[in-house]
C-alpha cells in the first residue's frame, strides 16, 4: 500500500460487497491499518483528514484510534462530502496541551478547540521522507525515478489509484524522529534530486511540511472506469481471436473433407 505495497482502496465511494442488502462500503479499513503498520505510524493519536481536491477549501480533521466510533465518524463525514478524499496525517504530533482551545488562535468559529495534530506547529518530528510526482509519467517510469536520481530504494511505494506513485523512505525501528526543520530540508532535497535527474517528473514541492497527508484517491471515479474500459477492449480482442480461430478450424475441416473426397475419387478410378 501508495500503499500505493500497492494502492489502498481506502475511500471506496459506496461500493458494496457481494450481499446486495449490505450497507455501502466507504473505506477499506483493513488496508488503512496495513498502511499505518507498514509506515510504523501506528494508530495512537492518529489524525485522518477528509479533504477537497481544491487546496483553497478547508480540510476536515478527525482524530482517533480507528476504533468503531472513529470509523463511524469518518464514514459519516465522507457521506456528507462524497466529492472529498480521505488522507492520513503522516507525522506524529507532540503531546496534546491540557489547555488546548483556551487561546483564540486555537478555536474554531463555534468556539470549540481545533484538532490537535493538524498543524505544522503540532508535529513532533518526521517518520522519514516521501515523494509524489505529477508529471504524468507511467508507473514503470516512476518506479525507476529513485535509481535514476541516485537515491536508495524506497521503503514503500504506494499507487495513488490514478496517476502517481507515492514513495516513502522511512526511518528504521528505533531511530529518532527527524527534527521538523531537518524533515523540511530533506523533502526539498529529495524533490530537487528527482527533478534534476528527470525534469519531466515534476515532483510535488508542496509536501515538504511536517504535516503531510497521504492522498487516498477516489477509486470509483478514476480506477474502476479505466479497468472497465480495459476489460471491454480485452473482451473485444477475445471475440476477434475466437472468430479467427473458428474460421481456421472451418477451413482446416474443409481441406480435410476435400482431401477425403479426392482420395475416394482416386480409389473409384482404380477400381474400374
What structural category characterises the helix and strand content? alpha+beta
The structural domain count equals: 2
- Report the major sheet: 3 strands, antiparallel
Query: How many individual β-strands?
Result: 8
Helix content: 25-40%
How large a portion of the residues is in β-strands, by DSSP E?
5-15%
Please, what is the average pLDDT?
A: 78
- Order of strands across the main sheet: 4-3-5
Low-confidence stretches: 1-17, 208-224
Helices and strands, in N-to-C order? Answer: EEHEEHEEHHEEHH
Shape: elongated
- N/C terminus separation: 81 Å
Q: Report the total helices.
A: 6
- Cα-atom Rg, whole angstroms? 28 Å
Q: What is this structure, in a nutshell?
A:
The protein has 272 residues and is of the alpha+beta class. It has six helices and eight strands. The protein folds into two domains: 11-217; 218-272.
Amino acid at each position: 500500500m501508495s500503499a500505493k505495497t500497492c494502492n489502498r482502496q481506502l475511500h471506496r465511494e459506496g461500493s458494496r460487497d457481494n450481499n446486495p442488502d449490505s450497507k455501502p462500503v466507504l473505506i477499506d479499513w483493513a488496508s488503512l491499518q496495513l498502511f499505518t503498520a507498514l509506515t510504523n505510524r501506528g494508530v495512537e493519536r492518529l489524525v485522518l483528514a477528509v479533504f477537497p481536491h481544491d487546496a483553497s477549501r478547508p480540510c476536515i480533521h478527525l482524530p482517533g484510534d480507528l476504533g468503531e466510533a472513529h470509523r463511524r465518524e469518518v464514514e459519516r463525514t465522507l457521506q456528507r462530502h462524497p466529492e472529498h478524499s480521505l488522507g492520513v496525517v503522516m507525522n506524529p504530533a507532540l503531546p496534546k496541551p491540557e489547555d488546548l482551545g483556551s487561546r483564540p488562535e486555537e478555536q474554531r468559529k463555534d468556539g470549540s478547540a481545533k484538532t490537535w495534530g493538524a498543524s505544522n506547529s503540532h508535529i513532533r518530528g518526521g517518520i522519514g521522507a516521501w515523494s509524489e510526482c505529477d508529471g504524468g509519467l507511467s508507473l514503470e517510469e516512476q518506479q525507476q525515478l529513485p535509481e535514476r536520481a541516485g537515491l536508495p530504494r524506497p521503503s514503500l511505494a504506494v499507487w495513488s489509484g490514478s496517476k502517481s506513485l507515492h514513495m516513502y523512505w522511512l526511518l528504521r525501528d528505533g531511530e529518532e524522529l527527524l527534527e521538523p526543520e531537518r524533515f523540511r530540508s530533506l523533502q526539498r532535497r529529495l524533490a530537487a534530486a528527482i527533478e534534476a535527474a528527470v525534469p519531466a517528473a515534476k515532483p510535488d514541492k508542496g509536501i515538504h511540511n511536517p504535516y503531510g497527508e497521504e492522498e487516498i484517491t477516489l477509486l470509483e471515479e478514476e480506477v474502476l472506469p479505466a479497468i472497465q474500459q480495459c476489460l471491454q477492449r480485452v473482451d473485444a480482442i477475445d471475440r476477434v481471436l475466437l472468430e479467427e480461430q473458428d474460421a481456421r478450424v472451418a477451413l482446416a475441416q474443409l481441406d480435410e473433407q476435400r482431401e477425403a473426397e479426392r482420395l475416394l475419387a482416386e480409389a473409384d478410378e482404380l477400381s474400374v
